[in-house]
Please model this.
Amino acid sequence: MSAKNRELMMLQISQLLNTAGYSIVQLSPGSKACFDIIAKRRDQLIIIKYSSYVDNFSRDDSYELKSVASFLNASPLIIGERGKYFTELEDGLVLLRYGIPVVGLETFTNLIGQGMPPIVYCSRGRYFVQINRRLLRQSRLEKNLSYADLAQKVGVSRRTIYEYEHSINPPPETAALLETVLESPLAEGIRIFDLKIETEERPNYSIENLSSMKEDVSQILQDLGFISQFWTKLSPFDAFGEHKSLEVHSGLNVLVCVDDEKNKHVINRAEMTHSIASLTKRRAIMIVEDDKEHPLTQTIPTFTVDELQHMKKAFELVKRWVKKYSDLK
Model:
């Protein structure tokens, strides 16, 4: 897909979200981050990646997207168009890519714009319809049909009907037959924003390939109690962390940008991180070697490495962050 087409697609997605009442933070169209848009409406937070060719979304992309979504308490979603085994994502269909739901633009439009969720999903190359099990059983009993009776009418085994009522979902053609025989709309919308997203078992963070300054920052944060850290490769911020301690619960979680003078776009990244933090109710901090006349001190609460090193507890970071944030306002 050309850069122009991608930009138009991202504009269409953002306009749809805005019309539906979402507040959004959107990365630049040319960004190679693991997500493109974070959208919030009331208590719902969605983190979206657009990938025209779904197979281009890699395992590393998925790991970081799921980790960021978990930290932000957001629902990850991929919007795509085509893939290796399909020329287009049909309306009303949900795929999974490394455990993350994938839908086409039309499906997303119907969901966000009209509240019409998809009803068909693909698992291991086969398609299924999510059905209302309680209604299936109720409709069968109202028709005075046994498991065997209904099984004969739709061409499956008695055991399969039992499983439809208790654990599994039918393929689309069987679901259609069940609705015809029972004269009941059994198909049920898939709540893709409520799916349980399985995270992979990997270390919380790695300092491999980090600059010496980032290694120092990582150790300082750990000493302050940020024992849950994740250093990113595909996000506008460099890291995020949660403070955990048996003695003190600070309620502190941070999005971290580090100016190690190796990224020319640090100002844009810091501003984007600040916007994401504001939308998601997190704290954003910038860490620099020297804050004298640093351009970011007027944009985002900024700390020097030396300041952090002289802190004893996470509470000190909380108090100083509040003061710096108030000064910015």
